[in-house]
Amino acid sequence: MRRCGEKFLIGKLTTLIDKGRPNIGLFLSMSLDLNTILKDWPHEGGAIKVRKILGLDGREKLQLRIDLGILQMETTGRPDGQRPHGCESLLIYHQLRAARVEEKGENYELTPEQCAELQQEGIQYYHRYLSLFQLNDFAGVVRDTQRNLDLFSFVTEHTDREEVAWSLQQFRPYVLMMNTRAKSSILLAQGKFADAMAEIQHGRDSIMEFFQRSNFPELAAKSSEIAFLDEWMDEVRAKRPLSKLEIMEREMEHAVTREMYERAAELRDAIRLLKASEQRV
Questions:
Q1: What is the pLDDT of residue 23?
Q2: How far apart are CA 211 and CA 221, in angstroms?
Q3: Does the structure show a pLDDT above 60 at 20?
Q4: What is the full DSSP assignment across 165-233?
Q5: C-beta separation of 245 from 272 below 8 A
Q6: How does pLDDT run across 103-157, given as a tens digit for each residue?
Q7: Which domain holds residue 256?
Q8: Global pTM exceeds 0.90
Q9: What's the pLDDT at 30?
Q10: 15 pLDDT exceeds 80?
């Protein structure tokens, strides 16, 4: 933020000098202090505050309020707007290099320093998908969480240092949970309750599988991510509207309980026909 402000003022000063205008001192006296901006948008402990603004370049930006200031991010590409080595991200740069090396039948190995740089880049995407989730931009969350999952896999595949791989893989359960929440939220908004529940179950299974294949399978029992998805599944199941088949089955059970056997028989036959038609479809 500070560097951006400095570049903006320098650009204004250069324009004034080129035009020979006399009021350069006005810009020299302007403060780079961000307190005015921060006071207009105060930080609240325990709350994630996000907003969209229009940048000076005419493109939409994301702003995340943190205790010490504001993080500003691009909505697409690398969050800081940089293009390392001319690529959209550092991960893509290394993926392209790895592909070229492996085409020659050689192994591509990341140095600890490169792994650290990739981890720092991953943190940028974490801040963005957290912000997008607050704005209900679930498609963006799916994109950025999947990107970080790919990052974890890539680093694990291209380093022989287990502690380096685990420094990223330890976050996989959380990122899987956020990815699952975003995908399921999209389905729920479309009224696809069964598909949403299947997605929640798939996410839970993926987290469980990760723990079972790791060196710490006992962590599954303490996983807050699994616990959250279990609770969410119960909530979605409770809110899910009954299908036509389920309504008929409940009505048949009610008819039997009240000894309305003729009605129960009619419903039984109707249920058989409905199941048969669904199988044909």
A1: 54
A2: 9
A3: no
A4: HHHHHTTHHHHHHHHHHHHHHHHHHTT-HHHHHHHHHHHHHHHHHHHHHSS-GGGGGG-HHHHHHHHHH
A5: no
A6: 999 999 999 999 999 999 999 999 999 999 999 999 999 999 999 999 999 999 9
A7: 244-276
A8: no
A9: 57
A10: no
Q: What is the DSSP string of 121-136?
A: HHHHHHHHHHHHHHTT
| Residue among 121, 228, 125 nearest 177 (CA) | 228
Residue 150 lies in a domain: no
Q: Give the pLDDT confidence score for residue 56 in this predicted structure.
A: 92
Is position 81 within any domain?
no
Mean pLDDT of the chain: 88
Question: How many domains does the chain divide into?
Answer: 1
**Quick one: the chain helix, strand, coil %, rounded to 5?**
70, 5, 25
Assess if residue 257 is contained within a domain: yes
Phi, psi of 243 (to 5 degrees): -75, 170
- Tell me, yes or no, whether 174 lies in a domain: no
Tokens of 185: 């939220």
Q: Average pLDDT of 260-280?
A: 83
